[in-house]
Amino acid sequence: MDRLSFTPTFQGTSYGIGDQIGLIWEQTREPLMVPLLKLMVVVCLTMSVMLFVERVYMGIVIALVKLFGRKPEQRYNWEPMKEDFELGNSAYPMVLVQIPMYNEKEVYQLSIGAACGLSWPSDRIIIQVLDDSTDPTIKDLVEMECQRWASKGINIKYEIRGNRHGYKAGALKEGMKHSYVKQCDYVAIFDADFQPEPDFLWRTIPFLVHNPEIGLVQARWKFVNSDECLMTRMQEMSLDYHFTVEQEVGSSTHAFFGFNGTAGVWRISALNEAGGWKDRTTVEDMDLAVRASLKGWKFVYVGDIKVKNELPSTFKAYRYQQHRWSCGPANLFKKMAIEIARNKKVNLWKKLYVIYSFFFVRKIVAHVVTFLFYCVVFPATVFFPEVEVPTWGAIYIPSTITLLNAVGTPRSLHLLVFWILFENVMSLHRTKATFIGLLEVGRVNEWVVTEKLGDALKMKSSTKTPKKPRIRIGERYA
């Protein structure tokens, strides 16, 4: 009897809870949920328009640059370095080449070999390997590689420090303190997986020698493993747009863009005037570029000079990289927005460009609207028929933005749908990192070195089973 009386009581209680939840939903749906969703639609549409205008503006500028604009060698005074028989090699400026690395077992030989292979008078160049490795075995290997090149007559310095304070920024800052750096005029920086061509300095240094107002020359990245997998193809599409459009537009219009942290040459006096390397964020390269620009220095981007490097080929490595690239700019924007606004050395238009276009729209709005609108608000409107998203906001604007993003990599147009899905998946991670940077909480200063495969990647590629040649039907039957 007890069992029989227990069952109806349980069912009645369960029905009552469900009924109460349904009642609460009906009572809050109209007065709370619908207005809130409508407000979110308006906010997201506003951000979409901001991003749309920014993309269209850059598209127009890059079209004009390609059609009527002059190349950097024509916009600035560029002449090849000429040999002076009286002065000899002393006529050439002294160049420091810095290679920061951390446990780079797979790529240390590639980067050191490429740097030592740079064509420049041997007594006017210093290769500086800044090794922060914590693995003793890798440390020994890097040191032996430096000694091997030194035995060939290369002026190479192997530098270590007692801790990893400041990570890459700390290593670069420490490297600039050595006495032999004082004799150098310029510093070229290459991450451990970057392999510059031998003529890199001959093509970049003249910009700095003949144009005293230029503080930075930035080259383009060339990805050696873009065909490794679908994920690297997606990365190539995003980064090609960054270099083809964003960097080119910034260089052509305001002589400002974010330093990419590698494959660039700095005028050491500009670097020092800006305050040197700082480790207050995870984007020390962008931090330095903004500070140098506020001092009045100009930057030039040379897209024709390409430096080979490696894309992250594992999702874990890519996720850590994207956290750093999303969190750092947002954190830097918070720290520098007021300083930029109060600066007296740059004009109002450049301030607006840096604060609004460079930081707010590209580094914050772009991430937030991709996740909030396309992954949350838009799908939620399915459950609220009374909340409508206009056609221009649901189809025309996102389609235009997507197509404009794809112009940098025409060969991957057929992968556009996969790129959209990939970017939406990553938008949650980027948005989270953006708010971490703005609020300065949690992993705001987390620095995880992007894993590189180097020789392991080459071995993997060489062991792939070769594709069978296609045989036409006629040949098959013949």
UniProtKB/TrEMBL annotation:
Q: What is its EC number?
A: 2.4.1.32
Catalytically driven reaction(s): GDP-mannose + (glucomannan)n = GDP + (glucomannan)n+1
Cellular component GO terms, alphabetically? Golgi membrane
Query: Which Pfam families does the record cross-reference, listed alphabetically?
Result: Glyco_trans_2_3
Please state every residue range assigned to the domain named Glycosyltransferase 2-like. 186-381
Q: InterPro entries per the record? A: Glyco_trans_2-like, Nucleotide-diphossugar_trans
GO molecular function per UniProt: glucomannan 4-beta-mannosyltransferase activity; mannan synthase activity
Q: Which SUPFAM superfamilies match?
A: Nucleotide-diphospho-sugar transferases (SSF53448)
Protein name (record):
glucomannan 4-beta-mannosyltransferase
Species of origin = Vitis rotundifolia
